[in-house]
Automatic annotation (TrEMBL), chain A:
GO terms for molecular function: ATP binding; ATP hydrolysis activity. This is Peptide/nickel transport system ATP-binding protein. Signal peptide: none annotated. SMART domains: AAA. Belongs to the ABC transporter superfamily. Residues 4-254 form the ABC transporter domain.
Automatic annotation (TrEMBL), chain B:
The keyword Transferase does not apply. It comes from the Bacteria. PROSITE patterns: ABC_TRANSPORTER_1, ABC_TRANSPORTER_2. Pfam families: ABC_tran, oligo_HPY. GO terms for molecular function: ATP binding; ATP hydrolysis activity. It is found in: Cell membrane. Keywords: ATP-binding, Cell membrane, Membrane, Nucleotide-binding, Transport. This is Peptide/nickel transport system ATP-binding protein. CDD domains: ABC_NikE_OppD_transporters. Belongs to the ABC transporter superfamily. The lineage of its organism: Bacteria, Bacillati, Bacillota, Bacilli, Bacillales. One of its GO terms (cellular component) is plasma membrane. Its main location: membrane.
């Protein structure tokens, strides 16, 4: 049994208008998405802005209500649970947010920020709480004394690590990381990514890693799902997606990554032009009349592509 | 192949006043940009790359900034110029592309009018000629339906389209120098590839010089002819793009290149540069400024007063610490720099 199984998930937002502001149409933010995560792996969700990757992540953690479909965490469907029942599962899933500047309350000390989940779920004495917070603060490489400081006293990378410490306090099983490093400089980015890999081993974490940066996805993820307009275009292992992309959209996305070798500049431009041409010529083979992709079709044990 | 220099920056110092004291954010930078050349400036945030760009445009608040040295544009020093004199040049001879196209555009003005605006100041064209030229520009930056787009407002356009409008504004008066400050950072990869292609194409058509400011080394590799790596207000390495990527010398350049995750090769672990860029007030003003971030390198490897030296034709490196530089075997210890 898969650790997390998302089945035909749909998130629709109604568009109102006309007489009595009736629902005239829907924005299909997530449209029939299914995927599975095994325990301990890192699954990457990739796509351009507006493709529904963040909505998918937020729906799994319960910040957005699913319109239809199932989210099975260890076999239990989270979408069918009442508020009270969901409470018990909430601590198993934690989130690391994109912007370390706006996701930490500037008026709270680090101690209060990191202890907040503990206070919600566990009854600890102040001493125990402090000890636990200090343990996690040290785990993320900050000085134990820094728990009495405020977020503005830290750099971007340190703040992001405070956010990670907060996510770790309840021993979650699944962490949803929504663009965790895109607000950081390259050097700090490396630090946070390395660190996320280390704690994954130590705490046996499963990551759902959401990003638009394919270099980072390649570095972090075991398996990848590519999204386009609320649907999956292609899914496979990291190797398959980067070395044997099947869908034209995936090919286009991968060819668009800047090549860090200036000597290959011409070839890269040529490759992009060729793929662009292929994209325009074979558009109707890959997209239907409404510009949507077809349902996923399995082409090997691990590799699926949206082709008719 | 003799190239005409269009911008010559000599020993530029840009200092900001913080609590009645001036601190240099750009400290003794000399850089030349020739026509038809893309010079990239890279570095972490806080290295002074944007401060350098804004000083060329004269966009720093005068009451809090001290500018020393010379910025010669086509042989004419820009620093002593008054605001009206500067207005004759910026927008006309020097164009600027900003990072975030949504904040760079006026939400209350149609995009066509915004492109015409700089022509209002710098040309004596009739309004129908201006409109004609604007439609041409829209076509040139790859906007599919220029006539329709002319009357659109920024919020009606996608991010990539908005950035194209910003580019159209920058090239409206055919400038001989374009300053592009993180032109693709706010965009998706596919759009980034299109915008990079467009900039490269326009640059080759118009023989413009471009100063490209970015922290994305992939963009540098695709766009630049020469690269200046900045650290803590100084240029630490300057070389042509092939040399910089194939034979980087300065420890900072090498660390940066090591820390990016690559699509081509998968590394188990990324290199982490110890510590952070020091803040303006805490910046060491003597000795090698990168010293504290490569603490495993012996003190004697550094110079007392490091200068930018030409080590090979066209390849400049600051300080001697690059000669025996190596990466430590394991940098797990990096996690524990704490906050001192």
């Amino acid at each position: 049994m898969a650790f997390l199984k998302v089945n035909h998930l749909k998130v629709y937002y109604p568009v109102r208008g006309g007489f009595f502001r009736r629902v005239i149409d829907y924005v299909r933010a997530v449209d029939d998405v299914s995927f599975e995560l095994e325990q301990g792996e890192t699954y990457g969700l990739v796509g351009e802005s507006g493709c529904g990757k963040t909505t998918t992540g937020r729906t799994i953690i319960g910040l957005i209500k699913a319109t239809a479909g199932e989210i099975l965490l260890e076999g239990k469907d989270l979408t069918k649970l009442s508020r009270r029942e969901f409470y018990h599962y909430r601590k198993d899933i934690q989130m690391i947010f994109q912007d370390p500047y706006s996701s930490l309350n500037p008026r709270k000390r680090v101690l209060d920020i990191i202890a907040e989940p503990l206070r919600n779920f566990e009854k600890l004495s102040p001493q125990e709480e402090k000890r636990k917070v200090q343990y996690f603060v040290e785990k993320v490489g900050l000085h134990p004394e820094s728990i009495y400081k405020y977020p503005h006293e830290f750099s971007g990378g340190q703040r992001q690590r405070i956010g990670i410490a907060r996510a770790l306090t309840l021993n979650p099983k699944l962490i949803i990381a929504d663009e965790p490093v895109s607000a950081l400089d390259v050097s700090v980015q490396a630090q946070v990514l390395n660190f996320m890999k280390e704690i994954q081993k130590e705490f046996q974490l499963t990551y759902l890693f959401i990003s638009h940066d394919l270099g980072i996805i390649r570095h972090m993820c075991d398996r990848i799902g590519i999204m386009y307009r609320g649907q999956f275009v292609e899914e496979g292992t990291s190797e398959e997606i980067f070395h044997d992309p099947q869908h034209i959209y995936t090919k286009r996305l991968i060819s668009a990554i800047p090549n860090p070798n200036p000597q290959h500049r011409q070839e890269q431009v040529k490759l992009r032009q060729e793929i662009d041409k292929e994209y325009h010529n074979s558009y109707h083979q890959y997209f239907d009349a409404e510009g949507r992709v077809y349902p996923l079709k399995r082409i090997s044990e691990t590799h699926s592509v949206a082709i008719p | 192949m003799s190239k005409q220099p269009i911008l010559q920056i000599e020993n530029l110092r840009v200092s900001f006043r913080i609590h009645d004291e001036y601190y240099a954010a750009v400290d003794g930078v000399s850089l030349t940009v020739n026509e038809n050349e893309v010079v990239a400036i890279v570095g972490e945030s806080g290295c002074g790359k944007s401060a350098l760009a804004l000083s060329i445009m004269g966009l720093h608040p005068l009451e809090r900034t001290k500018l020393e040295g010379t910025i010669a544009f086509k042989g004419k020093n820009l620093l002593p110029l008054s605001v009206p004199q500067l207005n004759q040049i910026r927008g006309k001879d020097i164009g600027m592309i900003f990072q975030d196209p949504l904040t760079a555009l006026n939400p209350l003005m149609s995009v066509g009018r915004q492109i015409e605006e700089s022509m209002d100041y710098h040309t004596k064209l009739s309004s129908s000629a201006k409109r004609q030229r604007t439609l041409e520009l829209l076509k040139r930056v790859g906007i599919p339906n220029p006539e329709k787009t002319y009357d659109r407002y920024p919020h009606e356009l996608s991010g990539g389209m908005r950035q194209r409008i910003v580019i159209a504004i920058a090239i409206a008066c055919e400038p001989s120098l374009i300053i592009a400050d993180e032109p693709t950072t706010a965009l998706d990869v596919t759009i980034q590839a299109q915008i990079m292609g467009l900039l490269k194409e326009l640059q080759q058509q118009m023989k413009t010089g471009i100063i490209l400011i970015t922290h994305d080394l992939g963009v540098v590799a695709e766009m630049a002819d020469r690269v200046a790596v900045m650290y803590a207000g100084e240029i630490v390495e300057l070389a042509d793009v092939n040399t910089l990527f194939s034979r980087p010398l300065h420890p900072y350049t090498r660390s940066l290149l090591h820390s990016i995750p690559s699509v081509q090769t998968r590394k188990e672990k990324l290199h982490v540069i110890q510590g952070i860029v020091p803040s303006l007030q805490k910046l060491p003003r003597t000795g090698c400024r990168f010293k504290s971030r490569i603490s495993w390198i012996d003190e004697s490897e550094h110079e007392k007063n490091p200068i930018l030296r030409e080590v090979a034709p066209g390849h400049w490196v600051r300080c001697t610490c690059y000669k025996n530089f190596y990466f430590p075997q394991d940098n797990i210890g990096d996690m524990n720099y704490g906050i001192s």
